[in-house]
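Standup notes, structure subgroup. Blocker cleared on the pyridoxal-5'-phosphate input:
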Amino acid sequence: MNIKVPEYVKKIKPYPPGKPIDEVKREIGVEKVIKLASNENPLGPSPKALEAIVKGLGDLHRYPDGSCFYLRRRLSEKYGWPFDGIVIGNGSNEIIEMVLKAFASDGDEIVVPQPSFLMYNLAATALGLVARPIPLRDFRIDLSEMSRAVTEKTRVVFINNPNNPTGTVIRTGEWEAFLKSVPKDLLIVIDEAYIEFVKSRECISGVDYINMTGPWVVVVRTFSKAYGLAGLRVGYGVMHPDVAGFLNRVRQPFNVNFLAQVAALAALDDDDFLEKTRQLVWGQLEYLYREVEALGLSYLPTEANFFLIKLPVNSHQVYKRLLQRGIIARAMDSYGLEQYLRVSVGLEEENRLFIENLKEVLEDLEC
Ligand SMILES: Cc1ncc(COP(=O)(O)O)c(C=O)c1O
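Run returned:
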């Protein structure tokens, strides 16, 4: 192709998406597919969100409210944080992108844990930024090393709490020491996409640390996981209003669609659904841990709605064989964890079928 493409764009490895369920069904000729690959809510969307969507359908000829007024007002009440410090995104992915667009430019650096959510690197590379990956220590984000990696070129540090794919959390002591050790003009994005699933009392919540003096903490949360609205694309950031002001400069005027706004607003108050989701995930994790151990495998205990299973072989082999049986999990080779399979917690029956099939696949592979 004779079109000029920036070198940094040529370097990007596109995000590896999960396969659409219907496509998997067609390819392998099965009726039922179980998707445990994208950490979605197996219960479906919040019923209150569905009701709000049905009510909103008649207004689709209008542009959405570009300021997301009602959703921001509700979030502002929930967190007791100024309305102007809340930004809504087309998924939390868009908040991540907006932070980078607003605060970093060509050649600047970001510090990221590795492995962690791939989007931090991807969004940075697409903007010509340089990502400094800091390896996990014992599968946990190593905040002391991340702090040491900060230079005067660093604009943003990304932290994922709990971390995808390891499910580990940040503890109060290490977090507070980290905040003290970094420059006051640094932006720290703490991505809490899975925070609703955390049980540990040691885990910090980023919203308790957004202050008015820097380092500038931006807390990112989403409606895609515990609230069951991944298909609508809606997430948000909580931050100092001045920081939000810069995000709003790079934000598209109608970045969040109308149905996403009304559904998220309704889901936010659906406490019963959130609690049902948490109880399902916690109960099923206990079942999955027991069964994985019974297969003679080890796993990483998680604080999220997914966990890592260590396999005796390269996880891609197991992934492919599970796929042939209609079960989609996530091989972790693209995260540099070749022997690990990431599995999202599904419904009781889905988890039972996953374990049954994993057992047979391992027998086929003679492990
Ligand atoms: C850690 C983390 N952050 C953010 C996201 C993106 O979520 P959203 O659907 O809100 O863009 C994901 C999705 O998998 C994730 O794992």
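Discussed briefly. The radius of gyration is 21 Å.
Next: hand off to the docking folks.
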